[in-house]
Specification:
This protein has 410 residues and is an all-alpha fold. 80% of the residues lie in helices and 0% in strands. The longest helix is centred in the last third of the chain and has 33 residues.
Amino acid sequence: MPLALLALAVGAFGIGLTEFVIVGLMSGISHDLEVSIPTAGLLVSGYAAGVVVGAPLLTAAGTKAPRKTMLLTLMGIFVAGNLISALAPSYGLLMAGRVVASLTHGAFFGVGSVVAAGLVPEEKRARAVALMFAGLTLANVLGVPMGTALGQQLGWRSTFWAVTVIGLLALALIAALVPHQPADPSATLRGELKAFRNVQVWLALLVTALGFAAFFGIVTYVEPMMTTVAGFPTGAVPWLLVLFGSGLVVGNYVGGKAADRRLMPTLYTVLAGMAVLLVVFAHTLHSPVPAPVTLFVFGAVGFAITPTIQTRVMDEAVQAPALASAVNIAAFNLGNAVTAWVNGAAIDSGAGYTAPAWIGAVFAGAGLAAALLSGGLDRRRRKAVRVRPEAATGAEVGTGADPAPVLERC
């Protein structure tokens, strides 16, 4: 694989670390800036909101920019946001720094996915995307525990200084290793938006939102689930998170490799596997022996959806792969926000900490239904090509997209 993928992975590592490490710094921030823990918790919500807003806006703004230039610009903004956070003398400025950094999140992964896919042959595209997202998984496995420990020892600002340095390293590596990929001179924002006339793009975004709603329901509440229900001591939580994160690494790699062979069957298998595993987890969660095993397997199966659905979106949005990929990251965060609200309401109502597993199974099942509907439209399109090739235009089957990429990859 090209060394340029290393540069993209380092950038992904820094962005993933910024998003998730804040959870381990809440107490220090609350004490230092004299705000309550729930108020400090809004730094997570503020980041997620910035991702949803920034993903389409920044990607659309860079429609005519060369992709390497776009990546360098995004990483520069990311560094600035973390620098503001590190220096912030008040809660308001810390929130501002978080939002500035978050604006680049979706656009970086969107543009980066297209760049990664363009660096390798067609049959290795999903694996290339998976290698970029490996930075995100490593941020969870290694970065968050290390960043949390650093913040606890030297103060929460030290963590943001460390992330700033990682951002500068990523900036240098992108400048040195990522080849120039010129923008399409005919590309316009209006033309890019036409990709969203394709119902398959919307179905892929729906699968993303539902699939990650199932996934993040467990991520958000893994600590109380494993301590309150499974009976683990609080001190075991970091090791359980490392175990879970190891599953993410495995799933990311296997999912990318499987998606390169058979994309849609991989997507069906992952979503069905998530639904089944969540039902199993609701039962194994009551025992300290099978609970962590199920947690690891769920992490592996659940995160296999990442390179799979990201590649699916790029295949369907052939007119605007970067914009659609960025919007897909926004859908990822939308699923995160929705499941946090739904599961929180269920737990508050007395459903207990097994509720996220049951609710997640419903989300995964709904995602599978959307994926099967999408696959059905693919089969209809293939049939139209066989029976009457000249009729196999996107307009006649209601998608508005060139069928060629999907016909080759499903």
